[in-house]
Queue: 4 jobs
Job 1
Amino acid sequence: MSNNSDSAVGHAHHFTDMDQQREASTLGMWTFLVTEIMFFGGLFVAYALYRSMYPEAFAEASLRLNLLLGAINTGVLICSSLTMVLAVRDAQSGKVKGLVRYLIATIVLGSAFLVIKAFEYSHKIHEHLIPGSSFQFAGPFGQQAEMFFSLYFMMTGLHAIHMIIGIGVLSVLLYQAKRGRFTAEYYSPIDVAGLYWHFVDVVWIYLFPLLYLVSRH
Amino acid sequence: MSNTVHHSVVDRENDYIHAGYGLKSWLLTVDHKRIAILYLISITIFFFVGGFFAFLLRLELMTPAGDIVSAETYNKLFTMHGVVMIFFFLIPSIPAVLGNFLVPLMIGAKDLAFPKLNLMSWYVYNIGGIFALYALVNGGVDTGWTFYTPYSSTYSLSNVVPVVIGAFILGFSSILTALNFIVTIHKMRAPGLTWFKLPLFIWASYATSIITVLATPVIAITLCLLLFERLMGVGIFDPALGGDPILFQHLFWFYSHPAVYIMIIPSMGVISEVVTCFARKRIFGYKFMAYAIMAIAIFGFLVWGHHMFISGQSVYAGFVFSALSFMVAIPSAIKVFNWTATLYKGHIEFRTPILYAFGFIGLFTIGGLTGLFLASLATDVHLTDTYFVVAHFHYIMVGGAVMGYLGGIHFWWPKMTGRMYNEAWAKFSALILFVGFNLTFFPQFVLGYLGMPRRYYIYPDEFQVLNVLSTAGATILGLGYIIPMVYLLWSLRKEKNVGTNPWGATGLEWTTQSPPITHNFEKTPVVTGEPYVYQEEEKVVE
Ligand SMILES: [Cu+2]
């Protein structure tokens, strides 16, 4: 979010100083995250409504999700949040080597999450659980289970898109970090990207129990 | 000697318009003032597209029988009129044009916090616009601007997908602008400019931005769900497939009621600036005005259910939504009373902007009071989906929001261009607009009360007189929109001679040259005094 910088470390022309620029980018990201909460919020409302309308169907459909892979992915994302925090810490104290190392670790963990997710999705294709004309679900709850899987794919799909964007942003930052763009004075892009990354992780922390643990009390 | 002449010429051209030449300097600009001009051009095009549809609708309704277009085309016309006017004109109008231009100037900043995002928002707007225009030439869409399911998701054979994608994309341009305003107003105010010294236009822009940021993402996800249902053929809102259409309506109105405030609150900000300037008096009850704006923004989130009194939502929810809707009248009334009190015993100068302000106050009051008829459960059952509703929201959205927008364009035109328009023509067209507007929409209150449903293609003979009156009014109204186009463009041929502050107004935007330089101010201003210190106040002190 650094616009028209005159040099690598200077503040953009329309800000009075570095502090103002840093505060502006942080507030900008927080505001953006509020929009994200409202964006996912619509889906959570739909989920809450249909789960309360069709509790048995949701419980049964949820059993078809792979709990083990979901749990592993939760662990992977929590670790990626840790490496992200460490990246921000090293950026603050100007340790470029550590910053680069932790950014790579975060990107690797994020990609691992997506690979595991892709495996899960491909299993669903084999089991004919993709909503639409090819959907098959034995038992009395076919239509309602399809609703569950519609929401499952919307919610996890949207989350995965956010992960992909996050990995893209971190890759750009990694490239810039390697070229010495960030210093102890100028690191707000890392800080702000970190906020975004944690947000995406937190969304998953809600998605996991809502989707995978419906029938397990 | 020739040197001096040369020098003065260079000085006069030292403004944001002459900061660069050629199309590229405009299309790649990050200057908030130039982006405002880009938006002005885009939304004006959409305004006339939407207006053209309205003209065809009114033409069709001249006679009880269907004669000019087919019933299917009629459905598409009112849908496209609504979609274009609401999403592509009213919602971006004041924020994206006047807000973009004025927010940094009014708070003494060099630009918005994120200039590149600001440019991006204009491109996002136009990409959304291209989708809508594509749907238009490809045969249009017939769902009504509300896209109610399951008709939109399952049964409609028209171009629902491109229009919905267009509206989805467009939402992000509003979000980017709003995010930019929130950060700019929080972090980039000039030294000494505390919150309660801010002009009310800034308060209005801030409140609008908060609503935009909270509500727009909800319509975005709702439209995603609609697309998902339509493209995949699964049931999310379709009751035949286990879905709940009422959920769509809840999510839709959670955005679309606050969206009304996205349209009207910026106008209230404009009117506050204009009223205090031309009454030559301080605004009455400044703090109450600021609080009232925020109260409207907050209450606005709690009343969406008043669009669903007969949709099958629980009656108890209906009670609560009705009561809360009445509450919105309180801050709205505070604003009207305070404008009136500001005018009281003022030395009113009857220039064009205040004529628009008068128009706004009168029409907004009628629109607001008729809103109370619709907020009452019992009367709403009778009036739902009649022309009464159509008249009510046009009084708010055209009589209110568009009057405010035009008043603002006239008020700040000299600042934006350095030129003054022809005052006689401007007053004449303000008058024409007021007359044309009332003639168009007042008969519709009566029609609705008598039971004429909205969105109907043919109607019984006894409604014809009122419909002809309405169509006649629409013709006058259309003229009232075309005349300003002509004299405003014509004014660009004149000399730039309005000076820094042609209205003798307060506010930082009037302390820099017209049109302003690219970085707005030669030196960052420092604010020490209160807002709206007009002469009247000084006389009292003597
Ligand atoms: Cu409403």
Job 2
Amino acid sequence: MSETVIEVKNLIKNYGDFRAVDGISFEVRKGEVFSILGPNGAGKTTTVEIMECLRKPSSGEVKVLGFDIAHQQNDIRKRVGILPQDFNTYDLLTVKENIDYFGVMFDRSIPTQELLDAVNLNDKKDEYFKNLSGGLKQRVGVAIAMVNDPDIIFLDEPTTGLDPKARREVWEVVKDLKRKGKTVILTTHYMEEAEVLSDRLAIMNGGRFIAYDTPRAIIKEHGYGTLCIIRSANDKAMQLLTATGLSVKRKDGDVEVHMDDKSSLHKVVEVLQDPDAYYDEITVKRSSLEDVFLKLTGKRIEDDTGAKA
Amino acid sequence: MKSRIGTDLMATAKMFVRNKGAMFWTLAFPIFLIVIFGAIFSSTGTGSYTLNVQNLDHGPLSQSFMDSLNQTGVVKIVMVDPSADPDTYIKDNSVTNFMIIPGNFTQNIALNSTATIELRQDRTQSAANIMASVVGQVVNHYNLNLSGGKEHIAIHSGSIVTNNLTFLDFFLPGVIGLTAMTNCVFYMQGVQSRYFATGIFRKLSTTPFTRFEWLISRALWQTVVVFMSVAAILIVGMLFFNVHITLTWMSIVLIIVGGLMFTGLGMILSRFAKDEETANAAASAVTFPMMFLGGSFFDLSASPEWLQMVASIMPLTYMNNGLRDTMIYGNDAAALFNLGILAVVAVVFVVIGVYVSKWTDD
Ligand SMILES: Nc1ncnc2c1ncn2[C@@H]1O[C@H](COP(=O)(O)OP(=O)(O)O)[C@@H](O)[C@H]1O
Ligand SMILES: [Mg+2]
């Protein structure tokens, strides 16, 4: 197992009487993309900003790169890169000027040109920040987060509010960071994003981690496995499927068959060859983080617009 | 290696130049004031300030003294019968400026002793200062000409003015004080509220750049902005209203210290109000009374005592008074007193401002 770069033990954060983070413990390993997935108000920002030394914990122990957040903030600050939630920088400076500016603020910095290339912003380098689209702004934010050549990069909701195309472009940047050997801590409320990008992740709700592992392991543990869905199946089809001995469930007009092993699908297809069995289509669906979240909390994660994320 | 403060300062300057609105208001507001008041003052017209003179002297020197007054082009002399009673005359004719040249004027000067002229003025009139200055200036001129500066002519009750002044010159220090106040308070309040709301402070707090360094950079920048306004005021004043540059070293120090003080005030205001609008309203609430009672527009020495009390707790009053002391009356000792008060208040405001300012939530 590779080296641990962040260690959090029993972290608690209260705002007055309200407990925003309720005793979480986890660790982040070198070179991985670690995500905290959860709905608005789950406590994601509070958690990462404590690791970034921007907020003080009420209790608990947090070590970043071996440094204690209570006493060694300067050591930490020099070695981490941060894209804050709702990132913003100087509107009336160009992309290049903004990166240059933050380069000076740190003692060591990588050349601006290298950063522009890294986030693919070279042709926008002379545009004012205010004239960029949301996705480009986030990429500027990532470039600035990389300016001090940090070992760890925090990205707090880097894709919130972006359209799907811009979101995917940010994903590519995250994958690049991983390829460069950076450790990335990402927060998001997009299930798919967490599933695609993370090596390991925590699902956070109400200040607690309700699941914490690799996406695959979480889905395996809390999901329903794989389902075969036969849409608009007639009673004959239902009858034949039940006879296979597989676990079968009628759901509205459909039939859901639980895939116990690789041979299950073969059995389904075989019995449905009967000329009296009618149905519209057969689909196979693996359970997702979405289903896990639904199962664990009884709710769906909603995105900003209120639509299902 | 580039310094953080220098880099921030340069970035701020770039953004200022690119922000046409900010640049416009920084320069337009003081110019607007100077144009409005310049127009008001000069519409009274050159030469239309009436000075009633009762000449009790029969010698040649009083005559030439009056000729000199005439030649300034500012004074219109109305002769008063030597036998008239000054008090009655002033009352009957609603006179605002009344000068008495004593009977021994020529004789005293000839004997190389001092001749005292009496200048009675209605001090509630804005023209009073101007008249006093003109008379004082002519007197000064005379004293210089007559045997190297020995005081031959003294003005009874009136300020001795050293500079060659126009009407607007009196108004100028007040405009500078007012501009320094509005610039610094609103800029600092605005930028702090905005950077907090938009998250720029949050981003900055992730870097080794400190709040203190940032405040130094912005205070330096404010000084630059205030001097830009002062330059705008002076240039417009000189081109259109015949204002004379009266920037002394003392006035420059006063502008810097006063600017710092108002910057500190802006820092405090932006912190105690929760959001940008409230902070802006608070800044208005604090600056508005000072605009009128800080002595920029009106001389408050003739106003009720309670109003003067209010004025005496307003920092702008000391800035304006200090600037007038040095720029108009050439009285750097009095200016130094005002500077001292400003400096103390500036330190207090800036320390509180630095102490209370925050970049992050918690
Ligand atoms: N500075 C603060 N003061 C009081 N409550 C806060 C503060 N910051 C966050 N909270 C509350 O703490 C909870 C967690 O917030 P946050 O960490 O921002 O969640 P997330 O990033 O997952 O949306 C929310 O209910 C939020 O309202
Ligand atoms: Mg958040």
Job 3
Amino acid sequence: MNVIEARGLRKEFTVRAKAGRFRRTSSVVSAVDGVDLAVERGELLGYLGPNGAGKSTTLKMMTGVLHPTAGDLTVCGYAPVPQRRRLAARIGVVFGQRSGLQWDLPLRDSFTLLRHVHRVPAGEHAAALRRCTDLLDLGSFMDTPVRQLSLGQRMRGELTAALLHSPEVLFLDEPTIGLDVLSKQAVRQFLAELGARGDTTVVLTTHDLADIERLCRRIVVIDHGRVVHDGTLTQLHERYGSQRRVTADFAVPVVPGDVSGLPGVTLESAEAARLVFALDSTAEVGDLIARLVTWGTLRDLSIAEPEIEDVISRLYLSPATSIMS
Amino acid sequence: MGFVTATAARQAGRNFFELAAQFRSFATIGFRRYATYRQATVASLATNTTFGFLRSYVLLAVVAASGAGSIAGYSRAQLMSFVWLGQGLIGVVLLWGWNDLSERIRSGDVVMDLLRPQHPVFAYVSADLGRAGYAFATRFLPPVVIGSIVFGMALPTRATTYALGLCSVLLAVLVCFLCRYLVNSCAYWLLDNRGPTMAWMVFSGVLGGLYFPLRMLPGWAMWALWLGTPFPSILQAPLDVISEHGGVPGPAAMLAVQAAWAVVLLAACLLVQRRAERRLVVQGG
Ligand SMILES: Nc1ncnc2c1ncn2[C@@H]1O[C@H](COP(=O)(O)OP(=O)(O)O)[C@@H](O)[C@H]1O
Ligand SMILES: [Mg+2]
């Protein structure tokens, strides 16, 4: 049985705005517009889309805090809104912008409360907390009041709080938004570990492709409330020809050599000591670098993943869009 | 173990002991939250004590002017009990300055309260009783001790008064909390919750027996307030029970009215919460 099953899921918001002194206009926004999704137990699903695509709205419906306008939805066999409290015992939720921790108290106190809230046996709780403490490096701020934590530290706390009762499904809404590089790294590594165990189903929303690059085998891309892609990241890149960008800085200006022997690589620009190449999904970065070092001394090299906005705009250009829906 | 294996569902507390454990953990959080703000506690204490002196001198002047040595059935010592117990109880029932819930509604954090297996009213009421426990030790006892040393208060003469007084204070905390919960819940429907907050501040003080004993009012007005509003159940009731005022209503009647208000307000809170949740899940937080 699928852990999450959505069929024709829709959510419309009525937005009222003042128009003139007395008149008010109301318009309907389709935040989620017919999403079909089946998620199996143990999957680590990346739910990707630009800002305003409808990611948070979908997660709110799945966790039972928002009522779908139409469509069928079950999570862990429950109808989320009518059976919210029963569902709450079986899922963990992190909403990037909201806090589930006790603001004024040391982080530790929030975890103790959650042990009782979810009736977790003491031994099991201690073991889970120890794991999270090790993996997320919580030790140094366990006794710091939550309000004094940095965003990255707080987010690591939120993740732990969502996981201590061993939920079957973990919903994470933009868990890396605004985090520093190190915290982002810690969160991704932690999720990779969790995903590798294959026991907890994870639904992760993000607008950052790098988040899910190595994490999620399955990626669902949503835009304007519609699923525009459901498959692997490689399939996504292949299908829509999204390009990575390699920027090479040389110690002294160089004359770019020939790259026609390297499949999928094109020279985008060359100005003095900086060369920029575009690589499609067939290109091998290693081969390009091997070629570059023969041209001169490399000072710096960076590889930029395609932006989600680029991928999406390509989705629209591509004729393949029509078969998705 | 731990999050390695996703376990089968644990149902929300079903038996009494589990419920008690959950109550205790929410109460502990409530207690500790306030215990972290010692300076705030000291500041409130100083304010409550200062106003205790002011009110004492005003009421003593009224007694002296009346020439009878007592007003509305309160002896001079009973009046001092009324003032100083009242100054102590303000902090215990937390008459003013609680807008945690409306703030969470405004910021949207209230959504996280819905993602727990417990009913939000249960979680909030437990935390508030924990808070009241802390306030009893830090904000009730000091003014009462100061008042009895400086002005001489009437101490309970009957042993049962202590038990009845404790019940009455507990019911007062509950009634006051439920009122605050309702006032805060207005934020679900209003963008600006200052109106309900102001109304609550004015009515709870004037009509609750804080500024003057309600027994000074004509009988019909006093009864109208007791039965028609929850305000006397918050301060007047525990004050009269503990200071052993001999008139009608007696302690049993006052406790009964308090209990009735607690039940009515709890029902109202549950209803409002259901409406609010429905609004939230339809319109989005
Ligand atoms: N409560 C709400 N009322 C009105 N419109 C909303 C509400 N919540 C979200 N929306 C709109 O729905 C769309 C999807 O929002 P959201 O799901 O938050 O996007 P994402 O999380 O992908 O950035 C946006 O256009 C947003 O403005
Ligand atoms: Mg969002």
Job 4
Amino acid sequence: MNDTANPLIEVRGLRKYFGAGPQPVRAVDGVSFAIREGETLGLVGESGSGKSTIGRMLIRLLDPTEGQIRFKDRDIAHISQRQMRPLRSSMQIIFQDPYASLNPRMRIRQILGEALDTHGLAKGKGERQARIAELLDLVGLRPEYADRYPHEFSGGQRQRIGVARALAVEPSFIVADEPLSALDVSIQAQVVNLLCDLKDRFGLTMLFISHDLDVVEFLCDRVIVLYLGKIMEIAPTETLYHRPQHPYTQALLAASPIPDPAQRHKDRPLLVGDIPSPANPPSGCVFRTRCPHALPACAETVPALAEVAPGHWKACLRNDLHPLSMKGTSQ
Amino acid sequence: MDQLAYVLKRLFSRRIVLVAAAVLVAVTALAVFFPMFSGVDPNAISVMERLKAPSSEHWAGTDELGRDLSMRIVYGSRYSIMIGIATAFFSVIAGTALGLLAGFFKKLDAPIMRVIDAMMSFPDILLGISLVSILGASLWNVVLALAIVYTPRVARVVRASTLVIRELLFVDAARALGVSTPRILYAHILPNLMSPVLVQLTFIFAYAILAEAGLSFLGVGVPPEIPTWGTMIASSLQYADRAFWTIVFPGIAIILTALSLQIVGDGVRDLLDPKLRKSA
Ligand SMILES: Nc1ncnc2c1ncn2[C@@H]1O[C@H](COP(=O)(O)OP(=O)(O)OP(=O)(O)O)[C@@H](O)[C@H]1O
Ligand code: SF4
Ligand SMILES: [Mg+2]
């Protein structure tokens, strides 16, 4: 679909429907994309758009209803959990809620040790000990903390432990599912820096899911904009933020708070109304019920994701709209 | 050793837990050692001494056959405590296993819960009576019957908790790491079930002692020559209006023991919760 050289992971026609019957919840409805080795791909969209569902399917915490997930050139979308097991050391996840993601009955040593043991990554007690200390050091925690329980840590520290657990198995691909949104703003910056650091250091490939458009801009190489389980636009970060083509992206960017009010665009479209139910999505373009540029044709035809500039794809029927220049200088 | 001392220190830091533990130790010690050394026959009948009120000679009075109640309570503790502990132990093991399987594996949920619900649709005592009549009245059959009666209760509680814990993110994290399902059950789910299971354990201990009394009263309990607190109350119930002590003292023994176990159980539960414990 979208041309990406050297993909580590490539997704085609991925769907996840929850519930049987005539009106299942179409959480993810036919998405295709690829992530290059070493790339950080952002995934943004409103709550309920299917971001977590995509992330969970990529590492097979959820079984896809349909579609392909090629990881290192092998389709893992429908292989058994047993076949998945050896691959699990290559793909990890960092969760949003650092409180629920650590077992309250386990010491940090046991939490990290379990990751090592599961994949036979530390032989003998000494090596295990050393590796746990190393992992804690990696995420900026003191090695003495290994004998503590999760409740003795702050949210930010817990998230660091979650990162250490993910790194323990030396993965090449990490899904970060809103790893910041449960943290205080002051702590968020530290965790962003940590992720940035680790990404460079280990050449990690990452799917970074977030609500926070500023963080995505800072951290990601390319960005996918998701709406009701469908991709609206994909572009390199720079392009997407400065010349968004899809009306939904434009609305999202307009809705995000801007520090300097002088830079606020007068004619920015704003997002009004509620997101429709994924059990009963609108016909044609799913965004049409909230789109300021919708035409009658938008109810008839499902817009295909089409390349509008090299590496820049959008799913919108209208090509007569000016790409809105965001971020300052208007034209 | 340090660890043990620390654990005990924590456990007994609350005075009420200490008192309750002391009661349990005393009751158990009496139950185990007194019959060995006293040489008293708790079944000795004395027609002249029937239904005597508590006195310096008979601390807890005598029953309708003139047997000394204080002696019988001490002797009975042996059997009652054993019934309580054994019933609680077996029903917690069986109930936890069933509840865990039903709660964790969606395919097993319906079959297991259908049986559990069917069992729970019988009143406890009716199910107990039927089981003992089928199995035959003996001490171990009463334990077995009561364990079967209380298993569904534990299974339900464990299933409900498992359904919640299964969805928590740390279980997803373990699955994402490739941790095996048996290990997820044993290392991630089971430890987080400790609190509700421990509560059930102490409840069932008390219930079992009382239910054994009920079965005895209905004539399907432990054979009457074995003195249990239950059989004592059951056999004297018809004299209760004339001789209240015949049921009050065994009753106090039941309540005191059950309450003490409950308090100690709470203490242990708090101790098991890392949130209430400082890492040493
Ligand atoms: N296990 C499930 N069963 C049924 N529906 C589900 C399930 N998980 C998610 N959904 C539905 O699928 C849709 C997408 O959910 P998802 O969690 O992927 O959204 P999201 O983009 O991650 O949202 P958020 O920003 O709130 O995390 C939602 O409508 C949600 O209600
Ligand atoms: S296809 Fe129509 S409704 Fe959809 S985004 Fe484009 S203009 Fe709006
Ligand atoms: Mg989500």
